[in-house]
Amino acid sequence: MSTATDLIENASGMKAAQLSRRHFVAGMGALGATAALGLSGCAPKDRAQIAETGEDEEAEDFDAVIIGTGGAGLSAAIAAYDNGLTNLVLLEKMNVTGGNTNFSSSGMNASETKFQKEQGIEDSNDLFAQETLDGGHNTGDPELVTFMCDNSAEAIDWLDSLGITLDNITLTGGMSVKRCHRPTDGSAVGLTLVPGLVSAAEERGIPIRMKCEAKELIVNDGAVEGVLVDEGGKSKKLNAHAVILASGGLGANQEMVTKYRPDLAGYVTTNQPGATGDGYAMAEAVGAELVQMDQIQIHPTVEQETSTLIAEGVRGGGAILVNSEGNRFFNEMSTRDKVSAAELEQPGKFAWCVFDQQVYDNNKAVAKYDKAGIVVTGTDIADLATKIEVDPAALQTTVDAYNAITTDGATDEFGRTEGCIAFAPGAMYAIKVAPGIHHAMGGVRINANNQALDSDGNPIPGLFAAGEVTGGIHGNNRIGGNAVCDITVFGKNVGEVVAGMFA
Length: 503
Ligand code: ADP
Hints:
With 503 residues, this protein is α+β, with helices and mostly antiparallel strands. It folds into 2 domains: 4-295 and 441-501, FAD/NAD(P)-binding domain (3-Layer(bba) Sandwich); 298-437, Succinate dehydrogenase/fumarate reductase flavoprotein, catalytic domain (Flavocytochrome C3, Chain A, domain 1). Helix content is 33%, strand content 21%. The protein contains 18 helices and 19 strands. It has helices at residues 4-11, 21-26, 29-36, 71-82, 114-118, 125-135, 142-150, 152-161, 190-203, 254-260, 278-285, 312-316, 336-344, 357-362, 364-371, 381-387, 392-407, 482-500, and strands at residues 58-67, 88-92, 108-109, 168-170, 180-182, 208-210, 212-220, 223-231, 234-245, 290-291, 296-303, 308-309, 320-322, 351-356, 376-378, 428-440, 443-444, 451-453, 459-465. Strands 1, 2, 6, 7, 8, 9, 18 and 19 form an 8-stranded mixed sheet that branches. Strands 11, 12, 13, 14, 15 and 16 form a 6-stranded antiparallel sheet that branches. The protein has a 3-stranded antiparallel sheet with strand order 3-5-4. Helix 4 (71-82) runs parallel beside helix 9, helix 6 packs across helix 7 (142-150) and helix 16 crosses helix 17 (392-407). Mean pLDDT is 89; it is low at 1-36 and 38-55. The protein binds adenosine-5'-diphosphate.
């Protein structure tokens, strides 16, 4: 473990072998940045006091340890590496990389991007920020939201430079402008993003340690100086100047979910099994403030048997929601909280997501849902209605009224103005959906340097956080497409910030 004290010693050539090249070259210069970012300037005193597991664990030294290989962790590692911080490691407790980011279905919201400009879409960072804050009912942190939106176009360019091109742009609920950037073929973003970021990490030789679970942060005099991990049943100490929490959310931890939201007991979740909220517990244990932890987003279109999230792009591309009586009941393009609440008021607390062949063909994900056996197919409206046990006449009336918005310029009785595309005659489809636990919007409080803050707003030296584990960006309602923006912008940012400590 090298500390700021070591850096001074290192500048005079001592302990060089223990430090990375950048680190060695950095010497005294690093000390200023170190102090500015609140890194520990103290030599370790007594590690036994914090590691009750004893002194016999294996210890390794890093400049930075990143916990989690979702979009935030991978972005952080790549950005740190490209900014000169090469002595770093990524930890993943599961045996697959990518976390919930793998399942990101919509895309990445971003404003003032080169792709929007090429496609004649007028947008502004201010409008993006305003609609994000409005979507979260003004409970999001304006500083973090502004930072995210202002840096979103650069993040799109950065991903493009890594070979992750998101130039197919659509609309998500709560946004008035097409700014949800998807892969060229319109497929779910996660399946392009994660492999792209993993390849970029591998090309750089960034080590990813699979089935390596962070258990506890090592603290010394209030500063975080590493992580205790369990790797293959063995306890190890990974010492580090900076620990970046990128461990995602808590949806798969029923106990934690119901601790913050007792009303969500029994809900299915779209989250992967590793989303157990470890980061919140570790951060809280070292004095980090957790904010808005009761803000757990439920997503309105989750197929309940398989917990499959039906992408918002399906509704954005024209699909409607009808109840068991064959009637629409709400503006499908409204925010997730409102659509979920409306669904729960319907008989049986579910809805059918109904769409035609055009929607099927324009959303790559639909074929995947079909393959998974969750799509009901009808040769026409009446056939579909019979199959989903809805009155055919009622469904026909519903579709006719919906079509009239496009064909006759009729005003929608539910106020839907976006993504209204008349259904073509022919095959019709339906997926049974209900709300499911989707995203933790609360979490570790950070500033725009991604430093974890204590309850007085002071940075905890050595501790950083990015992605879903953080709180305050989305407020009490996250807009579809904003999570990928959040993890990319703040993941990239924390990598740059931490690398800057050694520059
Ligand atoms: P984000 O969208 O913020 O990047 P993800 O859910 O995509 O979040 O990724 C978080 C990753 O962190 C997941 O792959 C998850 O398995 C991993 N993770 C969670 N807790 C730990 C832990 N204690 N140690 C190592 N990895 C963890």
